[in-house]
Design brief:
single chain; alpha+beta; Creatine Amidinohydrolase, Chain A, domain 1; Creatine Amidinohydrolase; 2 domains; 3-stranded antiparallel β-sheet; 10 helices; 22% strand; elongated; binds zinc ion
Length: 356
Amino acid sequence: MIHQRLKAVRVAMTSLRLQSMLVTELPHVRYLTGFSGSCGLCLLTPTDQFFITDRRYKSQAPQEVRGFKIIIAKQTLFPLLAEKKLVPANSRMGFESQHVSVADMLTLKRLLPLRRFIPAANILEEVTAVKDEKEIELIRIAAGISDRVFQRLLKLVRPGVRECDLAAEISYLHRMYGAEGDAFDPIVASGERGALPHAHASEKKIRKGEMVVLDFGCCYRGYNSDITRTLAVGRPTSEMKKVYGIVLEAQRKAIEGIQSGVAARSIDAIARNHIRRSGYGRYFIHSLGHGLGIHVHDPLRLSALSKAVLEPGNVTTIEPGIYIPGRGGVRIEDDVVVRKSGCEILNTSSKELIIV
Ligand code: ZN
Ligand code: ZN
């Protein structure tokens, strides 16, 4: 598995004529090496691969890291690249330009003079965009944990409960059910606050007659889930009930359109057109979905501007929403795997309007 991943990176290195590639973004380091700690980097050459970490991980690194030569730094990691002569003079070294800070770049240039630093922004992004079945299984487990949390939430959402109480429950339950932690801070937005697509849970108490948007996800062995459900607390207004039906239908239609070879923007258009025809076009204010995997937001985008074409093994969210200022919002989000024909929905939580 690691071998396949290294091979894919090396193919990309060849096309950029790189003699080495420095990988510093931690989820990418974990993807290549298996290392789950918080300090480490790797360097790939055409024939060799090195993993550098510090002394805190002296015993952990050999347990987790496979197929790499492990180097333990006494202090910071970059000086080892020079001390161990891992990067030949006058060579082209690729680096993850969207993840390396200016300060780190200056340090690298000082430590490794006479090297050419080549921004290689998308190598790991492209390699990680297509998931193998083992990775999909980890995302499926993460999605399953979040589905279990949702089942529990059905019993906890009621008038008088604060949004932040529910957010705390989500975080607690994710861990209790086996996740490493939340994939992101849970969003709990009730009533009018539901019109804010990324509202953080506040101290507001939930009231009868409100809709509550619950958007949360967890991380399991480095892979993330991301689910949204919108509940009604007591009978919703007829308008919000109608809006719920429109969002649900938009999501269903979009999912139905997914298969490999289809342009990502055409899936966005399916959902957007449905919402527009229903009269709520101006209230759907974000893209339809995003890639999901070792990041909660992998680079794949399902949006009007996306140039991506869906491939088997892409994992994406499908999350249309309608947000009406002053009145509230509805969003429904599932994680789906693109297959040769059609797709597989990883979440099992009901999408019918649930009144608690
Ligand atoms: Zn979400
Ligand atoms: Zn999402």
